[in-house]
Amino acid sequence: MFSLISKAMPLLAAVALIAGCGAKKKAPSFYVEPAAESEKAKLLKGDAYRGKDGKLYLPIKLGNPAPKPANGQENLKIASKPYQGIDGKNYYFAEKAHDEMGVKPSKVAQTKVPEPVKTAGLTPQERETVIAEINGQKVTAGELYDKINSRPPAWRRMFATDDKKQEFLQNNIISEILLYDAAKNSGLEKDEVVSEARKKRMVDLLRREKFHEFKKNVKVTEEDMKKFYEENITQFKQPEGIIAAHILVKTEKEAKDLHTKLMEAQKKNDPNKGKIWRDLVKAHSLDEASKAKGGLLGDKKTRAIIKDDKNFDKAIVDAVWAIKGNGEVSAPVKTAKGWHIVKRFNKRNAMDVPFATAKKRLQRLVERQKLTDTFNAWVSELKKKYNAKVMEENIKLVTVDVSEPAPAPAVKDEKAPAPAAKGTAKPATPMAVPMGNK
79 or 119: whose pLDDT is higher? Predict the structure, then answer.
């Protein structure tokens, strides 16, 4: 946290004076105009303030992690612009805002990472030294040492004294042994949830061990990287395009009626306009392929519509590129299939990353792909070894609930997330599951 009250007041006054005269001020990029002078004072101090849009904006200070963005807000976060978090709250980057306002100094003192606690370790004999005994079960100095020193440095400092080590021993080791034995004696060891957690933990540990084992033998050559680059060229080279969705209906009258409803919601800046769009797609669109995706046009390979795109009807392409703002809709457009209302989500910038520039990323991508392929081949051998069979006809008995979940919090600029390109799937990271003492 930082404050500009005492050191920067003369400068802030000058900034405020300059802001009131001269050339017309550009619309702010890294902050939203404050609702009142009192709110502006909070913004200048780097505190939470309320903008002209009525929203409360919380500061993200230099050195602090930025909260995860809501769906469609990723690009705003990346650009350090005000965005909505997945928690429904609104955030702004204090440093960027003050830089834009001309307030100096705007740098926030970074939190200093504490130095690790230096320990000499234990000799083999010291590790085996018994420091506690519970019903015949012994706890060694090595066990206590490992448990404390496996924690982050700042946390370890809290348990550096003898009395705190004693406290840790009592609360985190002895109590756990006693509770585990009590739980086992009460029959909880056979509980379905406990069994499932143990099973998952075993699978996660095996997966982690296998990935580590296979990684030792994975070699990535220049030819491997060039091959991946050429086969996945759209990850590195692509023209600018627009992500868009549509509603397809049979008649012009129906299209005009839907367009009127959407324009009313847009003029009112209705916070539910995203839901209104999805509901209209679900209720009226004749395009079954896109209906389940909120009317999203195209597939994973042709999702962004480029200029003169041959994958879509020319009338649709022209309508998409005629829309100027994210979240806006076109007037009804006619094609051979019927009448369309097109909605723009966001623009995908052009990209041209040469092979030489992409080599570091390619190294990671190819290694990950080879690792995943090796692991999948090993699993396939297990299937053969244990004669794994799938009764495909019986899978039809399983139904899937495809009802729409509750809508996400409304966002200012609706954006459709771009799908991951082929070959970029990341191997699953095993999740740690707490285990009882053996």
Answer: 79
Distance CA 438, CA 435 (A): 9
* Token pair in block for residue 203: 């699978």
Count CA within 13 A, CB hemisphere, residue 175. Answer: 7
- Is the bond leading into 59 cis (omega within 30 degrees of zero)? no
Residues contacting 339, CB < 8 A, separation 6+: 248, 249, 250, 251, 252, 254, 255, 332, 333
Q: Please say if the pLDDT value at position 418 is more than 60.
A: no
Q: What is the token pair recorded at 196? A: 């499932």
**Domains in the chain: ranges and CATH:** 5-101 (no CATH), 124-190 (1.10.8), 200-231+353-438 (no CATH), 237-352 (3.10.50.40)
Q: What's the rounded Cα separation, in Å, for the pair 178 and 389? A: 44
Percent of the chain at pLDDT exceeding 90: 32
Distances (CA, A) of 157 to 117, 144, 148, 154: 7, 15, 10, 6
Residue 340 C-beta-side C-alpha neighbours within 13 Å: 27
User: C-alpha distances in angstroms, 125 versus 128, 130, 141, 170, 310?
Assistant: 5, 10, 10, 23, 75
412 by DSSP, 3-state: which?
Answer: coil
The pLDDT score that the predictor gives to residue 404 is: 52
Is the Cβ–Cβ distance between 194 and 188 less than 8 Å? yes
